[in-house]
Amino acid sequence: MTDLDSASMIIGELKGQFAALEKYIHARFHDQQQQAQVQYGYLETILRELKSLREADRQTSIESHDELEQRIAALEAVNTKRDGLLGGLDWFLKSPVVGWIVGAGTAAWALITGRLHL
After folding, report:
1. Cβ atoms within 10 A of the Cβ of 34, count?
2. Residues 81-116: tens digit of each pLDDT
3. Which terminus in the chain has less CB density within 10 A, N or C?
4. Of 42, 63, 44, which is closest to residue 52 (Cα–Cα)?
5. What is the largest CA-CA distance in the chain?
6. Is residue 116 a contact partner of residue 107, using CB atoms and an 8 Å limit?
7. If DSSP codes are grouped into helix, strand and coil, which group holds residue 11?
């Protein structure tokens, strides 16, 4: 064989190896792209789930907040009613006019029934 033939064979082998290497790199790149797409799909699913959980949590928080506001309003109404009643009763019992009226009524009753002798 001549030097030209051996050089041609070496070039042919290098071309074949280069083609195989190019095919291998292309296949690896394609596999990596597919894996990345699968991982991106998983990531999108996780993000969607997190978003739905956050929305559900926010909705629950709003509902519980509304429920608490309603309960507080009901308790405040009961407390206001009780304070009004007790305030009126307290004023009535501490009023000197009421004491004089009750005293006069008791004295009149005692005189009429004969329990008090003057």
Report:
1. 10
2. 888 777 777 777 788 888 888 889 998 999 889 877
3. C
4. 44
5. 161
6. yes
7. helix
The DSSP call for residue 75 is H
- How far is Cα 28 from Cα 18, in angstroms, rounded to an integer? 15
Rounded CA gap, 90 and 74, in Å?
24
Q: Where are the domains of the chain?
A: 3-113
SS (H, E, C) 22-65: HHHHHHHHHHHHHHHHHHHHHHHHHHHHHHHHHHHHHHHHHHHH
Asked whether 13 and 5 are in contact (CB, 8 A), the reply is no
- The pTM assigned to this predicted structure is 0.40
